[in-house]
Structure formats: structure tokens, C-alpha cells
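fold-stage: in
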Amino acid sequence: MMAIKEIVQQALTTGYLSVMAQNQIRKLMQTNYDSEDLDALIILHRSIVAGEVKKESLGQKNYRSVKDKDASSNIKLAYQVAAEMAFAAALALTMPHNSHDQPSVGA
């Protein structure tokens, strides 16, 4: 299975995030990830909100771009992305601290 950052890089390259890739990310978030994966997720969420990456809907195969949706749908999407980012941040805060993964002061 690919790492989260690899799935994100593929989505950024193609401009598309499939349901299968979304499910892989969810599975990986339950098992093994690092701070680079979390950074990649934040970049992916920003790209989705900006309309640079199209996210396949879980309920249907046809994706309508963010620009095509009405204002209430955009607000709903913004809340969803904010909730997912808050979840990723909460997970990051509960991760065990790894000294080699953290920048050191003065280095």
C-alpha cells in the first residue's frame, strides 16, 4: 500500500483524488503515518478547497468542480475540510514525540 504522502503527490500531479485513494488515506491514518504525511494532507486539503484537485464524491462517480456548486455547497465543503484538518491536527498532537522528527532549536 502506498504512503499517504505518495497518494497526495499523485492527486496533486493528476488533479484528481479518487474514492479509492480517499479510502487508502483513511486506512493509513488508522495505522501508520508521520508528520510528513500530515503536512501532505494539509496541502491536499488546501488544493481541494482551491479547486486545484477534484475530489471524487463518495456517493457518486461524477464530480462537479467546486466552482460549479452553489454557495451553500461551498460552505458545506469548507466546513468538511476544516473538520478533517482539525482531525488531522488532533491526531498529530496525540502522536508519540519522536526526537529525530522534530526540528531542534539552533540547528
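fold-stage: in (second)
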Amino acid sequence: MQVPLYQAKAEFFRMLGHPVRIRVLELLQSGPLAVRDLLSEIEIEPSSLSQQLGVLRRSGIVVSIREGSTVSYALAGGDVADLLRAARRILTELLAGQSELLAELQQAEFQPALTPGGADRRP
């Protein structure tokens, strides 16, 4: 039995749902990086990074490149970078909306509270 598309999408987004994986993908947008460079940027234990890279590699989002004793990782395609840019735009819009709401709430804090008839309720 084939997995429904919506379920496959949910599993895809669940796979992306780890901060280290997102950070790795962000770093790889500029090109392949050696594991040692990823470690210096992310500052986690090598075993944790290895585990997260394994998840990304098995999903097909990243590929590993071995050159001698050095292992580097790269994005498997440009669509992942597009997805990360889209996520950044969406978050920017959401946070902008929240900051506008915050500004409205802060402004309302300094305005007098009016009764339904328009009279000031302050003593």
C-alpha cells in the first residue's frame, strides 16, 4: 500500500524538525563543508553531529563526499535551499505581524480606558 502524499510530507517535515539538522542545511547552502568545519560552526559533540548527518543523508537531502580521510557534506539539490529561504520569508512575515501586535498592545497600555459610552474610567 502506498503512503498518502500528505503523510509523506508530514514525515519529511518531521525529519527536518531538529535544530541541528536545520543549522547543517543552512550552512551547506553556501557549498560543501567538511565535518570538522560543521563541528566548529555548530559546536556539538561529534557523535551528535554524526547522528544528525546520518538522518539527513538517509533522507536524501544531503550527500557525503569522501576525499582521502576528509568527509564533506553537500546539499543534494537546490530545492532544499529554496525551502529554507521560503521558511525564512514565512517566519519574517509571522514575526513582523507579532511585533505589530506587540506595538499595538504597548500603545494601548498608555491610552486611557474608555467606558462603552466613551467616558474615561480613570479615577
